[in-house]
Known about the structure:
single chain; globular; six-stranded mixed beta sheet
Amino acid sequence: MKSCFALKSKIAALAMALTASTVFGVGYLEVRAPGYDFRSAEYTTTHVFVDEVVGTTADIEILYTLTDFSNITDVEVFTNLSRRDLARVDRNGDGYADGIQPVDGNSITDGDADPVSGQYYAAFNMTDNDSNGIWELTIPAAKTGAYRLTARFKTSDAIAENSFDPNNWIWWGLRDHAVVVSPIDARDIRLYEINVFNIEADGDAFAQRSTFEDLHNASGAPHNGNNRWDLDYLKALGMNWLWFQPIHPNGIDGREPNDGWGGSGAPYDPGSPYAVKNFFAVNELMTVNYNGSNSQAQNRAASMTAFQNFVSAADGKQVGIMLDAPFNHTAFDVELADIGVELFQPDGQTWSPTDEIRNRDARFFSQSGNYGNRASDANSIAAGPDRFDFGKWNDVKDVFFGRYDALVEYDSEPERSSYTSEGDWFDFSDSDWTANDFTQDGQQWNLTRRVWDYFAEYALFWLTQTGYPEGTPTSEGTRYLGIDGLRCDFGQGLPPRCWEYIINSARSRKWNFVMMSESLDGGAVTYRSNRHFDIQNENITFSLNSASDKYAVRAIFDDRRTAYGQGLVLMNNTSHDEATPSDPWEAVVRTAAVGMIDGTTLIFPGQELGIAGTFGYQHYELNFGKSIPHFKRWNSMMPIWNDSDFGNDQLFPVYSGIQNARAFSPALRSSNRWFLDGDGNNTKIFATAKYETANATPATSDVVLAFANLDRNNDQSDNFKIPSALFDLMGLQDGRTYNVRNIAAYTAQDSTRRDQWLWGSGISGADLKANGFLVITRKVPVTVEGWSTDPYEAQYLKVYDVTAPTATPSQPAGDGVRFGCVIGDSVTFDWDTVAPDDGGVTPSYEVSVSINGGAPTTHIVASSFYHVSASAGDEVSVSVKAVNPDDTSASGPASVSSGVVKLLSDSGDEDFDGVTNGDEDTARTNPRDPYSVLRLKHTESAADGKVTLRWASESGVSYGILFREDLIAGDWSLVDSIAGDGNEAAWQDTDAGRAALDTKFYQVVTLSEP
């Protein structure tokens, strides 16, 4: 019984054996991190986000107040923060990874902190620099993972807290602070749930099912001829991740009869995907290449290939893949798989990967009648899950992971309510954990500890199978490779320490692997899951679907921020086991509201098409009193794919507008928010100001004013002013001008609507505070005309600083222009870059081009140069204005015009001096001046045969002197070079002693130009 562990539940709960001498906190430990203020470390959680590719970190600040103690000799933070890569090492040599069987914390010193060779948990020294009794340490969170921290100290005083021995550590003594370091990618997830068999099926029979090949239009895919859904469809909808219902072989034994439990009907075909028969195989029916004449192994291999090909196609489109992993329970006839044979097979026995676990070692499972014990044989295995308040899933069996506070062991109070426990202990002394269960390779092993490894191998196996093997480098090029995360069905049903081990094992392979827990209770249960998971799949759907005004919607998000801090929530209003709203537009209304809040948005297949209540799928079932699309039998979405009802056709563009806006806007995905109230306090408009970075300007940081009409039947309007404190957070300034575009605008009838300015010529910052702006949110139209003129849409108004520049660019100059001309049919003008203004706006430029004195044409460029193309003989000039890059009609003063540049053809002779323009350009002489030409002016011969050459030189040009003795035969030879200085150049051939009648020919050429 758990009562004997009441004392344990109050003692420090790090994954280690602590010899704490008190059940009360010693001192005061507090933690601060980005997005949080300092708070007590007692059972609190920090969520931070890092990008290991670019090397971002998040500082975790820890304060330990010990003013009640004296003669302190050592103070340490004890944590595994950023040490996930050591979770699977065995430093103490007991045969088990330290993330499974912890090392005694008292045996660990600060010398064990090396990130490669050290302990999984390590001690880090704190300092009291101010000598005020408050010890401090900042640890940068650099590696994603699920972590814990506590603290300890020593004093030279012999006191009760150290059992009167100064050599003993005094532990803080309360429950650990949890630190979840999530990949930054988790903030960007827009999730679409999918059932492989149903999504493109064209009927409710096996032969009409859809397959992995259908999902990416692979060769031979059965539904290519009438393709409806593929990766391009998903991307057009604005979604970037796929959550697959389990893709593994379904259990055969234990399937529900088609007339319900207790009935005599045939079992559902193919059965529940949540009754997994083999966690390390793909359902053999999910490929078009399934053949009933093949062996099971052949069919599973074909299905694995089909899945691998699909993941590769998804990787190419940067679509994340999230598998559904129901580790808490299995099919009756779950198989060992290769990893099961490796972990559980005793010496002297020969097992097969397809052997059923129940027949090899039933201790893998919980015991019927008491989930705190292991089953003893196949007939004593408990049904899943370990809960008695809502019934059992009769087609699955419960896996035993050990005893811990939240485990519901048997069906009586107070044990029945243990699932809400926040005691945070794990019973490392339980006989089921300490027993030597079997011998393998001559060593004794405990089966339950190896169950942890069995499921830790799951993510690693699927990463290897999908192109992310061990040793894959962390780089931008590998960010999207392989599967990308797990949705953990009934995630609340495993001990927190087990999840930490599984998560850190996966992250050691792929840093940006995302973990989402199904934890539907909310409250204490989901709070517990939030202490190690990135995303919580909790019960928000119920409160969302009942919320009808802005206060109810705000309360939903405020409650979750209070409970989960910066932890992410799956913001869904339906899923595979929740009823779909009877009005599909009510689902859209709520999607428009959640689309402006940080978290993970979800679309369930068919929502974007108009499923409602029990319409949309061919078959529904009653699941715990809710009608849901049937996933235990062959099913399809043909009713909704074939639907042509007016109104449903408009759903996709509205959903797409919302989700694509989230993809475009970092502000919408950010946790920085401010709920807005209009002057009329219209409760049917849910409004939020979102900003990417506090106090940064809209020119450098994304800022969005978001509005959703919560009334699908009526237009709603109000006037909104920007409060002064929010004004500063958004980086606005009184004297600057702002305008907005709706980045979620409905574009089915007008593709330009997202590019339209909505505030006319703009509103000054001062006016936004004093007078505000009008927002009109439209109802769901009931006519085609209504959708053309006033569609229902989320209004996510991205704020642009459209203030006109005040700076005047410098006079443009033509590149390479000499003597007012260039050779060719184009010229490039450049000017000095104009610096950003005091609003942070870096201007673009409006270039006015005049050719032959004609009317100028204007062109907008972002860089401080412009290339003009014209015809030889044309004369070109330009002037430049700095313009606002977002509203180019907002411009500053024009520059002085450039000089006129004439374009000359290479082969022409502009000055008729007998030398082409191109040759004069090469010689750097003036092609427009007949007296400027590279020509030997005269030569002088002395009696001794020395010859002097003279010519007009150009400054900065190097000239080469060449000669040969035969004008027809032989090559020219370079004999010397000299630098021109703008004066007459002279060169003398000093080769004396030649006969007077010898002949020598000379040539002067340009070797280089300035």
